[in-house]
Amino acid sequence: MSTESFVDVLIIGAGPAGVMCATALASAGVKVRVIDKRDTRLGTGQADCTEPRTTEVLHSYGLSDRLLRESVQLHMAAFYSPGEQGGIKCTDRKPDMAPTARFPFKLALNQAAVEAIFLDSMKANGLEVDLSIAPTSITFDEAKLSDPTAHAVKVTLQHLETSPTPGRKETVNAKFVLGADGAHSWVRKALGITMDGDQTEHIWGAVDLVPDTDFPDIRNRSTIHSVNGSIMIIPRENNMVRLYVQLSNQDVVDPSTGRVDKNRMTPDKLMAVAQQSFLPYVLKDAKDINWWTVYIIGQRVASKFSAHERVFIAGDACHTHSPKAGQGMNASINDSHNLAWKLVHVIRGWADLSLLKSYEFERQKYAQDLINFDKTHSELFSAKPKTKSFEDGVSHEDIVKAFKTFQGFASGVGIQYSESAWIDAKHQSCAPNLIIGQRMLPQVFIRASDFCPYDIQDYLLSDARFKVLVFAGNINDKAQLAKVHKLAEELEKPTSFLRKYLKDGQNVESKFGVVTITAKTEGLVNSLGLPALFRPHWTKVLTDDKDVAQATGGGAYDRFGIAQDKATLVIVRPDGFVGTIAPASRFEDVNKYFAGFMRA
Amino acid sequence: MSTESFVDVLIIGAGPAGVMCATALASAGVKVRVIDKRDTRLGTGQADCTEPRTTEVLHSYGLSDRLLRESVQLHMAAFYSPGEQGGIKCTDRKPDMAPTARFPFKLALNQAAVEAIFLDSMKANGLEVDLSIAPTSITFDEAKLSDPTAHAVKVTLQHLETSPTPGRKETVNAKFVLGADGAHSWVRKALGITMDGDQTEHIWGAVDLVPDTDFPDIRNRSTIHSVNGSIMIIPRENNMVRLYVQLSNQDVVDPSTGRVDKNRMTPDKLMAVAQQSFLPYVLKDAKDINWWTVYIIGQRVASKFSAHERVFIAGDACHTHSPKAGQGMNASINDSHNLAWKLVHVIRGWADLSLLKSYEFERQKYAQDLINFDKTHSELFSAKPKTKSFEDGVSHEDIVKAFKTFQGFASGVGIQYSESAWIDAKHQSCAPNLIIGQRMLPQVFIRASDFCPYDIQDYLLSDARFKVLVFAGNINDKAQLAKVHKLAEELEKPTSFLRKYLKDGQNVESKFGVVTITAKTEGLVNSLGLPALFRPHWTKVLTDDKDVAQATGGGAYDRFGIAQDKATLVIVRPDGFVGTIAPASRFEDVNKYFAGFMRA
């Protein structure tokens, strides 16, 4: 058996970041190997919630149906504060939804079940995880670093005792490597990347149980801020809820070492602490504790996210934070979602190696925002509540204010990448409400030919292609249609981005997905009047109108701020983020945008 | 190998009626055998459309997700009539939706793909179709007919030449037999059941193709009524459309026999006829004709639908009609859906044999309505259009009027079963807009505990249990809550239908699905204040309110006409039809309803 092999991408670690990247690469036909030092798949896992943007991301890979089927939806957030008679009282309930989200609710489902969705998708593309294998060294071939087609990274692997081939050693030559190997990442350490940040003083316990209680909001995401300590309730599948329970140092810290010692805590003790905070509501002892843990929060971000644009780290390997904000699995999945299409472009020879610099640029900034969010969030929930005897405490208003402020960030739908070679906001004024650097807003349009309603996100699947949305205005108006034809003529020229990157005879649709969106018109939209370039298939012309039931769709031009009497190009990146926007008169700026990273 | 076997139900024929029945019975754990004389599964099949009610039915078996994923939605109907300059012009477009439908559109998907959904569901329950087997005789054991547990029917089977065991004979002893063996049903003939009705004079061709045309509504369900003949367009999957093309006798009738002879027609000739009717629009010659046929319409209903309540016929075996109304597969699926739960009840010993009489009672009446609908429909579309030179022709207004009149029936959502032992409309006035004898209206409610929106149909799955909907009013009002507790006390008595049919220790939920629907209240609904009987699980209390996004739900008490200051029982049959309704004060009428067919 050969002890040396060659792959496009070696992924180390099969947690959420690893399997998301593997799913994306395998579906794009990239040659991938995935290893994990664990000897079995995860049983349950720490992570519990999928945020709205993550659901959109899974949708873009065709994986949201199963996620929605298996998970529990969280629609309402409830807030409890100290009452006048001691104990707690409900101070408020607020819809737990991000305003622009297509799936405007969190989905509770254990990490193992979410990973299984990815693993099955990988399997459908012939890819499985090799378990019980650990990396032992990683080296770069300096001479090859500038050649994107070269296998410039060499990783040696050791088959562990629990593998079918214990003791075996092998060498993998990879073009690229992803370290998705968790908070104690071997890859990160091997690259000498440091984690910057602090350990907090806040200690929490977490416990999964089927609750027996008269607490009215036990099936809502509830925040209990009591004088006995704080609790967060996350409902989940199989009638369970997860309780995050604030602990004090003396509960779990070993005074001799100053470190958290899980042995000082038991599920019963954890329940006893929770029961105090639930008063006057009764939380009965749980018959069956499915899972529990104790943790102290470390809030850190890696100093680098890549080495030579050849080895990358993602997920917990590059950021650690509190689980209560429900971001861990989401941050991991979105790290890989950001990276995967860039790897595909470089491996296919579509883009320069420089495109891979955007991963660290975009995701390190995100990770820092995440830590700042988590700090504010954790401080609020760990702080003493405001009462008559403690006027300086955190009030209900403080919590609701933070809840609202962070809703866009926490849900993921408000995440914004800064201007760069890959995010060009020069013509933002063409569509002031369609923010360049944010993900394309979900919006229902009606298919011009058959009046079927579709969300634009259904046309923005993660297939590694840039999408070109042509907002064509009212094409039943002759003058407007002429403008659209003029634009098509320009984009048919060999210098245009739609032609420049194609080989002879190659179809535009092999690299780009063109969709035309017309304004609402009287009568049927004259799709056949559009230039052929803008209607590659009869399904690719949409109209900004309501569906026949008048239930959904319409108003997008106004909502986005796009003029109906101009033609406007909206370029959406393969990860669903708006890359740039330009009016027809400035189509050359779109050529420049692509010239910044695409290879002719 | 034994040549004699015993099954609960033998199903003869694996078309839509057969596999629907097999799916329902297999999911209920009934011992089923399915045979078909064909030697392979269907390639494409004649049937093309699933009507809105059929989609609801598939949903109730957990099968609608796949149907929706694989099919094409038809939202708009377009109408073309003779124009002033010769040729046709668009006279109207109308939403092609049934007002109360949960899925308010037709779904186009070929019959083989629809059957595959059922076949895979059967397979998951360990049931497959035995191909290349035909029945040769059927006999009844008269002495056993009154014993529901007896195998009272003997069917001999012959393994055909194409089977793995050609020439083999066997005997199947069945409690019940379903003849789902098509228009030329062997079962029907063996039972001596006649088909009553006529052959029409209307001759049509049908052809599937990927169209190349400038006809604007080629992706909508279009009715073309031209002086050159009528056409109906049904868009379908894989970019195809089906054209139904009106033919004249001389096109296809053999003058020597007076019978339709398919050999007199070719796809090219069919296209030539269609091209004339499309003018002034150009329908180009098709490169690839996927499927085509020619037919003359017979409109007939079987004189009986069962023999001794032991052998039943369903689908084309008991009604034949024009395919253009898009009802064939739908009628077949709904025949079996009506029958299956009744078989389950009798086989489990839950109900008397008499329950099976309701199959013919309900479905024969439906079939007659279907023929009447089809006659009107076919006459209209086969008649000459009204023009200046032919004032007596059918006008656009005639067609639209018929379209509207029959929308409820054609979509299936307006189907009404008459009063009987199984449909008791005595207290219709308690909920005047929730029609007893029609399927329960879809309606979104909010789950009281966690604010998740659910359609009531999600609580009415086809699991063979009657559903008991307790409309409990505003239970945060003490007086109202007292009424609800009073009702629960009555229903806890041993004489109550909820207790009377249970064995010792058996749970109410094993035979009935109880769901409580409260009126909207200020603040959280006090679910825990409800009697335990009315909240068997925390998920089973719903509220008549909008979801947190204010996008769906609410207003059901008003819509149905149910009083908020009374308690009202709505009994939904296992097939989703409202069986009876009663006010709390007349709960004894519900006891009487069940006593009419249930076995204590």
Automatic annotation (TrEMBL), chains A, B:
Residues 7-373 form the FAD-binding domain. GO terms for molecular function: FAD binding; oxidoreductase activity, acting on paired donors, with incorporation or reduction of molecular oxygen, NAD(P)H as one donor, and incorporation of one atom of oxygen. It holds the Pfam family FAD_binding_3. Residues 415-599 form the Phenol hydroxylase-like C-terminal dimerisation domain. InterPro entries: FAD-bd (IPR002938), FAD/NAD-bd_sf (IPR036188), Phe_hydrox_C_dim_dom (IPR012941), PHOX_C_sf (IPR038220), RIFMO-like (IPR050641), Thioredoxin-like_sf (IPR036249). Keywords: FAD, Flavoprotein, Oxidoreductase. Belongs to the PheA/TfdB FAD monooxygenase family. PANTHER family: 2-MONOOXYGENASE, PUTATIVE (AFU_ORTHOLOGUE AFUA_1G13660)-RELATED, TRK SYSTEM POTASSIUM UPTAKE PROTEIN. This is FAD binding domain-containing protein. It comes from Coniophora puteana (strain RWD-64-598) (Brown rot fungus).
